[in-house]
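Input chain follows. Return structure tokens only.
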Amino acid sequence: MTALSLSTRKATPTAIGYAGAVVTVLIWANWILATRHTAETQMTTIDLGLIRYGVPALVLAPVWWRTGLLPKGVPLRLLALMVCGSGALFFQLTTFAIPFTPASSAGILLGGSMPLATAMIGVLLFRERLDITRWLGLGGIVAGVVILLARSLYGVQISWAGFTLLPLAALLWATYTHAFRRSGLSAVQSSAIIAVWSFLIHLGLAAIFGSSLTSVPLPEIGLQLVSQGLLSGLAATLAYGLAVQALGGTQAAAFTAITPVLATIGGGFLLGEEIGMAGIAAAIVTGAGVALSTGLFARKSAQH
């Protein structure tokens, strides 16, 4: 273990981990709705990225200034996986796909796929064993996606971006989860480094492709500063990091089961999207499947 990991990795109380997981999924559901809303504005994904990572990069500047952009003791491959997995690449994929995907479907394809991908990486790369509960959970996730697919064929249309890019983004997030656990960084340190690197990447993208932030109305920028910058970029990243440290990646990922349900409800009440029985069924089945697939209930059973 590196000197950095010895000095930064501290035991996080379980209660804080649960609180962090709940805060994360609440913010993620809001983030999906806010990103859906940007489809009605002139803001580009680059504009959103500058806000999303600029705010936490500024707030956490003392942290990344102290650790450096390339922290000693952290392998470059882990750092790259973290920045790609929850930073610039993840954000560009999701913000491109979400505006073309109903909120309920985005919650399923992203929130449902995240813990599935986390579990599969654990099985394939780290030789974790799946019990019958987890296999049932995987079956539930597949059933939810099938319901969603049927819904798109006979009712609400879901673009190719939703079906391809959101699960890919979920795989990136799962990769980040495993890389963060092995980096030796604290939740605050990892959030700071991911934010500053992602902000620099978006500055480069803005220099090449341009930005429309100067022509966006101030109320809209204010909304995104709160939703993308303070909540999603800063609070949710810190909260998820604390959840992973306290509960482990598998159990922390289980809480994303709540995201599809919250996104479905929010899409219906706040954005006026048609939910329907198929959307409700897909959200519930996928949410239950995610919780089972991560082994949350199996762990509890083993402890009692």
